[in-house]
Write a structure and sequence with these properties.
The complex is a heterodimer of chains A (387) and B (233).
Chain A lengths: L11 H28 L5 H29 L4 H5 L1 H24 L6 H7 L13 H16 L3 H7 L1 H8 L2 H13 L2 H5 L2 H32 E2 L23 E5 L8 E6 L2 E8 L2 E6 L13 E3 L2 E3 L6 E2 L16 E2 L1 E4 L2 E4 L13 E2 L2 H12 L2 H11 L1
Parallel strand pairs in A: 1-3
Antiparallel strand pairs in A: 2-11, 3-4, 4-5, 5-9, 5-12, 6-7, 7-8, 10-11
Helix pairs in contact in A: 1-2, 2-4, 2-9, 2-11, 4-5, 4-6, 6-9, 7-8, 12-13
Chain B lengths: L14 H27 L7 E16 L5 E5 L9 H5 L5 E7 L18 E11 L2 E6 L5 E2 L22 E4 H7 L9 H9 L4 E5 L7 E4 L9 H6 L3
Parallel strand pairs in B: 3-5
Antiparallel strand pairs in B: 1-2, 1-4, 2-3, 4-5, 4-6, 7-8, 8-9
Classes of the chains: A alpha+beta (387), B alpha+beta (233).
Chain lengths: 387, 233
Amino acid sequence: MGVEYVSVQWNRQKKFYDAVLVGGVAAFLVIFSVLTKVLFPRVTDEIMLIRAFGTGAFLLLHIILCIGPLCRLNPQFLPLLYNRRHAGVTCFLLGLIHAALVVITYHAGSDTNPILSIFVSSPINGSVSSVPFQPFGFFALIILFLMAATSHDFWLANLSAPVWKSLHMLVYVAYALLVLHVTFGVIQGEGSPLYVGTVALGLVTVLGLHITAARREVALDSESRLTPHASRPTESQSLVTSSPTEDEFVDACAVADISENRARIVCLSGERVAIFKYEGKISAVSNVCQHQNGPLGEGKIVSGCITCPWHGYQYQPDTGASPPPFVEKIPTFNVRVKNGRVFVHPKPNPAGTRAKPATIDGSSRREEAHSVTGNSESLVTLAATKK
Amino acid sequence: MNDEFYIGWEAKAAPGIGKTLRKAVVCLLVLAVLVPVLLAMSQRMIGVSVFEWGAVKSFTGVLRTQPYPHLLVPRPGTNDYHTLQSVINSPASASAYHLVAPWKFGLDRASIATFDGKSVSLKGTLIYRGNQTMIEVMPDSIRATNTASTIGLPSVVPLGRQTLLGEIVDSKCFLGVMNPGHLTPHRACAIRCISGGVPPVLLVRQKDGPAIYLLLVSADGKPVNKQVLYSRA
């Protein structure tokens, strides 16, 4: 978080992140280059470097793409996400050096403009090896450039998080283009089963992790989807009545479903809402962090503030506003607690609007205590209390 | 329940998260070492070719412009100018060095037409692979050294119609300016070089024995750069 723009807000963990990033990239480039030179002494330096930087950028892009779903599946990987933008910019720089060397080596000094040559120097003759693979790489690099150029929080704030996020989702288009670039380029030339296998393994890993994370996300959304007219009881709700009240408050969950200083995410009219429990109170806010649309409901109350699991942005749970001097704000939701259940009004308040936290009453606390024991006897007791 | 929570701007990660992070870092560093080793070792064999970049040398011989500019240089032991005429007429005693211009261009045949068939000196950089040699000629370095009379082209020996399957490469890159200077990644460069007048070559790989390197010319011994470029075969 910051109240003014600086190039990088360095801290210990960012320095550690970048040290590992630079060390890993340097190790890759040096090992590839030295080994290639040793095994193939006659290889020309520019082609050796083209290959080193190209393969390095492609591997790094795989790692970057895997971080997101890994964190969705296991929050213990969140440190890898924290400074991912530096990895993205590094990936772009590696790709840029690869592309510059390619243009100088293969296209410059000819009878055609070097950039135009990328598009006109590979006529298609019907064979797989004649598919012009370099334009795929060109357009992928343009996307990576746009992402790297707008990676700073200045652009995030000025473009707005949804626009910025949409722009950065283009990384998947860039990845698809690069898979084509490699498949119709170096794989056609090298023909080594290891090259084919490596690209296939990378593709399967990226797709597999994303599909697994998406399926889990869909299942969670399905479980937590609630509407003002038809609440869907979860397992823990099954013994209590959950019907919309007259003033449209929706029965979202039981107080006991929420751990202290943590949240439960519910889907209200298509929007995810994070319901936090803290200091005997309940507050509900939008699940979307204003910074990078991180999932606030997977965050935690730290020092009295909702803290985003992605980059540590903080919001006061009752107002949805970041503590001064920070200025970020998120929508809040009106909440009630009655008979141990949390009711949320589905209409969000404007970002930064104070919504009075609901106090967890005595009966809710008792039900919570019963529920924590987790045995069927206590649930039956709870049902009896309700009736 | 493990309630550890990671906050990037805090000085230190929680112990459990830190432990996972250390394992992840080790895995990533192993990848950074293992992947380049495997990829580097799996590269296709790269041929023995040389471009003596930066080493400009002087050459003397007889320049010919057809079918592509080349310099006939007497082989060691026969480089006596008094016997040059006989050297030229005896292929076994002369080497033909293809001549090209810097970057992706062949020598402009019109600008060197006045030297055709004459003994010249020139400066350039050697490019060679196997028994094939090429010189990248420094611009404006060609000088006539004597006025040799008309020299006939080596006699032509017809081998009959052949069917050959191979890859068309640009001779300059393939001989050593780039290595590897062939296959799909190099295709665009080959097209630019051939478009710029570098002699096209048909590279025929054999199961047994070395690859055959055939300079492509028309039936009447003329350059075929345009035909090669616009061929869709």
